[in-house]
């Protein structure tokens, strides 16, 4: 079995990791495993484990200026490569240039949205639609378009009834 990195030497080090619920196996030769710091647990980049082998090089390209240092906690790009995470909230500003692309590859986007219960999301959607209809009704009244206003009023009443039926108690 050949090394997954150099594709030339026989693999003697075999790593297995779980990525998004899928098992990923990496086979390395002696030389590549030493280059990656696999034989020295303190030198092995956690970022490589999280992002796949070769991530440390991607981080260097994504975060130019390897000597940049967070003014708040003193964290450096080298610390990030080693730990696979940042030191404090200020690090996101300090290393912003390189982080955006890196975060996009690791996650679905660069903004944390979080999760909400389905019932909350449904009531939130209905509430947003109600606000939209109310604005539409106000506009129709101002424009003296009373047919549209009456239709929108009826939609609002139906929506309010639907919201009331979803409320507990």
| Residue runs with pLDDT of under 50 for 5 or more positions | 40-47, 49-56
Gap between N and C termini, in Å? Answer: 65 Å
Shape: elongated
Q: Which structural class matches the secondary elements?
A: mainly alpha
Total count of strands: 2
Topology as a string of helices (H) and strands (E): EEHHHHHHHH
Helix content: 40-55%
Describe this structure in a few short sentences:
Helices cover about 55% and strands about 10% of the residues.
Key phrases:
8 helices; mainly alpha; 53% helix; 169 residues; two-stranded antiparallel ribbon
What features would you describe in this structure?
The chain is mostly helical and about 170 residues long. Helix content is about 55%, strand content about 10%. The chain has a two-stranded antiparallel ribbon with strand order 1-2. Helix 3 runs antiparallel to helix 6 (about 95-105) and helix 7 (about 120-140) packs antiparallel against helix 8. Residues about 40-45 and about 50-55 have low confidence and may be disordered.
Summarize the topology.
Layout: E1 13-19, E2 22-28, H1 30-35, H2 46-51, H3 55-62, H4 77-83, H5 89-94, H6 96-106, H7 118-142, H8 146-166
Antiparallel strand pairs: 1-2
């Amino acid at each position: 079995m050949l090394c997954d990195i150099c594709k030339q030497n026989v693999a003697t080090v075999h790593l297995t990791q779980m990525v998004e619920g899928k098992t990923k196996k990496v086979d390395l030769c002696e030389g590549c495993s030493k280059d990656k710091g696999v034989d020295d647990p303190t030198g092995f980049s956690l970022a490589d484990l999280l992002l796949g082998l070769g991530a440390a090089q991607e981080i260097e390209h994504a975060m130019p200026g390897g000597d940049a240092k967070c003014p708040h906690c003193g964290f450096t790009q080298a610390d990030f490569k080693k730990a696979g995470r940042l030191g404090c909230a200020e690090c996101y500003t300090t290393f912003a240039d390189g982080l955006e692309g890196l975060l996009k590859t690791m996650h679905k986007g660069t903004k944390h949205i979080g999760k909400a219960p389905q019932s909350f999301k449904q009531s939130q959607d209905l509430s947003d639609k109600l606000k939209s209809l109310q604005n539409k009704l106000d506009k129709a009244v101002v424009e003296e378009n009373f047919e549209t206003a009456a239709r929108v009023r009826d939609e609002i009443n139906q929506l309010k009834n639907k919201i009331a039926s979803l409320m507990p108690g």
